[in-house]
Amino acid sequence: MVQGDDSVCCTNHLKGLYDLPRKHMTLAPSNLLLRFSEVCCPCHSQTDQEREDFFDVTMDASQEVPMSQRFQASMVLSGVGDALGYYHGRWEFCNSGKTIHKELEQLGGLKKIVVALPKWNVSDDTVMHLATAEALAEWGCESPDNDKTRLFELLARKYISCMNDMNGRAPGMTCVNSTRLLSSSYQIPFNPRGGGCGAAMRAMCIGLRFPRPEDIDDLVAVGVESGRMTHHHPTGFLGSFAAALFVSYAIQGKPVKSWGAAMLSELHVCQEYLMKSGHCVEENIRTMNNGYFRDAWTKYLQLRGILDGTSEPTFPNVYGVAERDDFVKSVSFDGWGGASGHDAPMIAYDALLGCGNDWAELCSRSMFHSGDSDSTGVIAAACYGAMNGFTGVPENLFRHLEYRDRLLNAGKALYLLTHTDGVITLADIDKGDQPESPGPPPDTGDLDQLKSMVSEGQDQTVVESSEEPGAGASSL
Ligand SMILES: [Mg+2]
C-alpha cells in the first residue's frame, strides 16, 4: 500500500499533497477489503488502540492535522451536521432558531448530546451523500479517455438504491420522483421546478475526489451531472457544483473569504460543460443566463463585502440567533432558507465565514436556524472537517454516529484515490443496499456502555419513521 518515494509519512501528508503528480488509481476486481480496522492511512497499519487514537480530538489546534483525517472527518462530520440539523425532523422543520437553541440548552448542549440512534439518525442528506461517495469509490479511476459514463451509471444506480433507506429520513419529493426516472438513463428531462437543495446536500464528497485546482473540469462534470440526475435545473445542480467546490477549496487551504468569489469565477466552466454535454442544452443555458444563481450569490457577497475575494467579511454589529434567522429567510427563494440550490451552500458558507473555526459557533449558525437546517449543516460540517479534521469537535457527537464506519470508509477511499498510486480494492465500501446501523443504543448518555454496544455490532436496526405527513417536503 505504501507508494514509494513520494508517499510521505502520514504526519506529512498535508505538506506532500500538492507535490504529488496527478495519478490514476487502478481498482482491483473486488474483494481485497480495505477496512477501517486495517489501515488508517496508506502508511500505517492500524491497531485497535491506533483506531481509538485516530479519534483523539484533544490535540493542540495548532498541530497539523493529517490529510487522511481531514478527508474522513469531512465525511463523518457531514453526517453529524445532518443529524444535528435534522433531529429526527424536529429541528429541520422548526421555523425558529430561538426555539432550537432553547431546546439544545435543555438537552445539555453540544457536549452532552450523544448523536446516536434512535434519537439522532441521519436524514436523506447523508444517505444520498454516501451514495455519491460510494459510487466515486467504486468507480475508482478515470478511464484513459476520461469517459465518465460508467461513473454516471453507478451514481444513478446508487441514487435509486438508496431510496430504500429513507424510512424516517424525510427525503425530498424531487429526489424521490426523479430517481424513479433513472432506471432507464442517468439523464432525466429538464425540470423547471428542480431548483431545490437535494443535489447540493449530497455533493461535498465530489470535492474530496477532485480536490486540486487542476481538477476543476472533472469536479464540474461530476458535480453538474450527478446533481441534475434529480435536480435538472441550474439553481439545483449549481448548488451541487458549489458544495463540491467549497470542499475542494477547504482541502486546498484556500482562505474561506475567497471561496464565494472564486466559485462565481468558475461558473463559466459549468456553462461550457452544459454545452459540451449536449443534453437539454437550450433550456439550461437559457435558464442559467437568466442569472438567478449568479445574482443571488453576487448580492450576498456584496452584503458581506467580499465580492472581490480578498476583503474581510463584515457582519452586522448585532448578529444573534434572531438576526441570523432573518438573514436565512432573506436569501431564500420562497421563505425557507437553505431549501434551494443557491442558498444551502450560501448559508453554510456564511456560517463558515462567521464561526472563526469554532465548531459550536458553526453548529449554531449552520444547523440551528429557522431554515432547512440539515442541508446547510451537512455542507458546513463537511467543509469544517476538510479544513480541521476532528479538531474541536466533542467526540460524543461523532463516535456513535449512524453510518459512521461507512462514512469513514468512504473518506478513506477518496483519500487513497487522490493521494496514492497502485491497486486498492473497495468491496467493503459498497454496502449501500444493506445499510449498517450501529444502534440503537440505550437511551442514555453512558459512553462506555455505548462503546461496548457499538464494538459488539449489536442491533442492526434502521429506525422507523416518526415523521408527520408532509415532512418529506425537505430538499425541494
Ligand atoms: Mg434531510
TrEMBL record:
Alphabetical keyword list: Hydrolase, Magnesium, Metal-binding
MF terms in GO: ADP-ribosylarginine hydrolase activity; metal ion binding
Record text on cofactor binding: Binds 2 magnesium ions per subunit.
Enzyme category, top tier: hydrolase
Entry binding sites for Mg(2+): 123-125, 372, 374-375
SUPFAM superfamilies: ADP-ribosylglycohydrolase (SSF101478)
InterPro entries given in the database record: ADP-ribosylglycohydrolase (IPR050792), Ribosyl_crysJ1 (IPR005502), Ribosyl_crysJ1_sf (IPR036705)
Necessary cofactors: Mg(2+)
Pfam families named in the record: ADP_ribosyl_GH
Gene3D superfamilies reported for this sequence: ADP-ribosylation/Crystallin J1
EC number(s) recorded for this UniProt protein: 3.2.2.19
Classification via PANTHER family: ADP-RIBOSYLGLYCOHYDROLASE (PTHR16222), ADP-RIBOSYLHYDROLASE ARH1 (PTHR16222:SF26)
General function of this protein: Specifically acts as an arginine mono-ADP-ribosylhydrolase by mediating the removal of mono-ADP-ribose attached to arginine residues on proteins.
Family listed: Belongs to the ADP-ribosylglycohydrolase family.
Official protein name in the record: ADP-ribosylhydrolase ARH1
Lineage, highest ranks first: Eukaryota, Metazoa, Spiralia, Lophotrochozoa, Mollusca
